[in-house]
């Protein structure tokens, strides 16, 4: 099942085709990190780095510093595969995006989160509008011409293996199971990510239609 991730700003609801979202009952989650609006499903790979400010030497808790370092990290993962680049905060092969990033930064800690398009359903892109503000390299291309699938370049298992090895050059990794993660959540963790209700989506749609009516 697909779902949609929104950054904290309510204005990002304007990037959704809310009529289609409501019709198909697609869950919409408002996350606490920045970044753009993302539709995800079983074909999405998530990688999230949660670091204290001194965990990575030379990386300062600022967006540009973190992005620069992450570009080098995934350059190591994808060396010799496609024409990998970090372009305007996106991970791309050539001029086609396959990874979008979101960040949250505090005084002593930062989070860098990436949604990798291992695969995606073309029909799901109908839930997203073309953003008014987009990277210059997008050149007003629609989703089908702007994005690509990681699976077209390497197997999923190899991508995960190479990402793990790249991370091991910076961190000491220890696998944990889902039960352990669940136990941490039960320990008083304060959730700031929320699932939007159907009424909230309906109200946003009504507001959008009212705005269009007033401007016409």
Summary?
This protein is an alpha+beta fold.
What are the SSEs and their pairings?
Blueprint: E1 3-6, H1 18-24, E2 28-30, E3 38-40, E4 44-52, H2 63-77, E5 84-87, E6 90-93, E7 96-105, E8 109-117, H3 143-146, H4 156-168, H5 178-185, E9 194-195, H6 198-215
Parallel strand pairs: 1-2
Antiparallel strand pairs: 1-3, 2-9, 4-8, 5-6, 6-7, 7-8
Count the E strands: 9
CATH superfamily: Bira Bifunctional Protein, Domain 2
Give me the number of helical elements.
6
Overall number of structural domains: 1
Keywords: Signal
Protein name: BPL/LPL catalytic domain-containing protein
Pfam families: LplA-B_cat (PF21948)
Organism: Populus trichocarpa
Question: Could you characterize what this model shows?
Answer:
- The structure is a single chain.
- Strand 6 and strand 7 (about 95-105) form a beta hairpin.
- The protein has one domain: Bira Bifunctional Protein, Domain 2 (BirA Bifunctional Protein, domain 2, 2-Layer Sandwich), CATH 3.30.930.
- The model has no long low-confidence stretch (mean pLDDT about 85).
- With about 220 residues, the chain is an alpha+beta fold.
- It starts with a strand and ends with a helix.
- The chain has a 5-stranded antiparallel beta sheet, covered by helices on one side. Strands 3-1-2-9 form a 4-stranded mixed beta sheet, with no helix packed on it.
- The chain has helices at about 20-25, 65-75, 145, 155-170, 180-185, 200-215; strands at about 5, 30, 40, 45-50, 85, 90-95, 95-105, 110-115, 195.
- Helix 2 (about 65-75) crosses helix 4.
- Keywords: Signal.
- InterPro entries: aa-tRNA-synth_II/BPL/LPL, BPL_LPL_catalytic, Lipoate-ligase_2_inactive.
- It comes from Populus trichocarpa.
- This is BPL/LPL catalytic domain-containing protein.
